[in-house]
Amino acid sequence: MSRTAVIRGIGAWVPPRIVTNDELARELDTSDEWIRSRTGISQRHIADPDMATSDLAVEAGGRALKSASTASVDFVIVATSTPDRPCPATAPSVASRLGLGTAAAFDVGAVCTGFLYSLAAGAGLIAAGTAESVLVLGADTFSTILDPVDRSTRAVFGDGAGGVVLAAGAPDEPGALGRFDLASDGEGSDLITVPSGGSRDPVRTGPGRAAEAADPYFRMEGRTVFRNAVERMAASALRVAGARGWDVGAVDLLVAHQANLRIMNAVADRMRLPRERCAVNVDRVGNTAAASIPLALVDAMDDGTLRPGHRVVLTAFGGGLTWGSCALRWPDLVAG
Ligand code: ACO
C-alpha cells in the first residue's frame, strides 16, 4: 500500500489581546454594524508590540506536538507572509525554540493559501520517503503590516497561529491526505500585495534620511478579490471532493479560509452545500491569513462541529493569487 501523510496532531494559538469592532470604531471611520454585516467579524486577536510571528508559531507548534504525543519531527514548515525578518526564514528559529534539534526547516509564502501549500509540501516529503514526520504551521501577525488608517484591512485581519503534525501512514487511515488541488495566477499579483520593501521596490536610504519604503503596508482590492475567491474556492473544493468519490451531500464539513463570512456563504451556495456545514470562527478571530484553516479546525473540534470520521474539505484562496483544496476523513485527535 502506498505511503501517505496522515495528520497525527493539531494545535493552535491566538494572542490574548482582543480588539472589538467598537474599539476599532473609536479610531477609524467605521462601525460595529458595518464590519459585522460586511464581514461577519465581531472581534480579532492582536499580538502585543513585542510579539513576532515566531512567538505565535512556537505556541501553536508546541500544542500540535503535544497533541501528536511526540517531541521530534524531521521537518518544520512555516507558512507566513509576516516572517520575523525578511531574511532568514522564520522556521529554523521556530524549530530550535521547540527543541527540535537540527530538523530541516523552511518557510512557504502563499499568503492565505500558505497552510494548504505547506501541507502539500509536507505530505510530498513524507510520500517521497524524505521525511517520516513534519510539523506544518501557519502563522501570521498581519497587524504588523496593516496601514493604521486603512479601515478596510484593519476591520478584517487578526493575528494567530496553528498547525498539524504529519507522519507516514496508509492511504485508507483517517487523517490521510489525498491528492491536493493547488493553483496560482500571477496576473493578479497586484490585487493582494505589500508594494514596497522587497526587491521590486526596495527600502531607500540617502544622506541624512532614515531608511524608508514607499508603501510598506498590506493592500487588497477587496471587491475583485471577493469574486475571484468565491469562484476559485468553490471549484477547487468540488474537485477534491469529487476525486474522493464524494458528492456534495456526503461532505460533513467545509473548512474554508476564514476571509469573510459572506465569501464562505457564497462558496457554500455555489457548491450547493448547506451553509451549516461550513466551519465558522471568523466572527471571533477575523482573517488570520496562513493560520486561518488550522485555527478553524481546532475551534470546530472544540465546539463539536468536527468529529472523528467526518468527511472534511479544506479550501483556501489568497495573495499570489493562489488557491487550493484537499479532502480527508477527520482522525480521532485531541487538540494540544
Ligand atoms: N467601515 C466602513 N466602511 C468601509 C470599511 C469599514 N471598515 N471598509 C471599507 N469601507 C467602505 C469603502 O471605503 C467603500 O466606500 P465607497 O463606496 O465610499 O468607496 C465601501 O465601504 C465599499 O467598499 P468595498 O471594498 O466594496 O466593500 P466590501 O463589501 O467589498 O468589503 C472587504 C470589503 C471586507 C475587504 C471585502 O471586499 C472582502 O472581504 N474581500 C475579500 C477578502 C479576501 O478574500 N481576501 C483573500 C484572502 S486574504 C489574503 O490573501 C491576505
From TrEMBL:
SUPFAM superfamilies: Thiolase-like. Keywords: Acyltransferase, Cytoplasm, Fatty acid biosynthesis, Fatty acid metabolism, Lipid biosynthesis, Lipid metabolism, Multifunctional enzyme, Transferase. Its EC number is 2.3.1.180. Residues 258-262 are annotated as: ACP-binding. Transmembrane segments: none annotated. CDD domains: KAS_III (cd00830). Homodimer. This is Beta-ketoacyl-[acyl-carrier-protein] synthase III. It comes from Streptomyces populi.
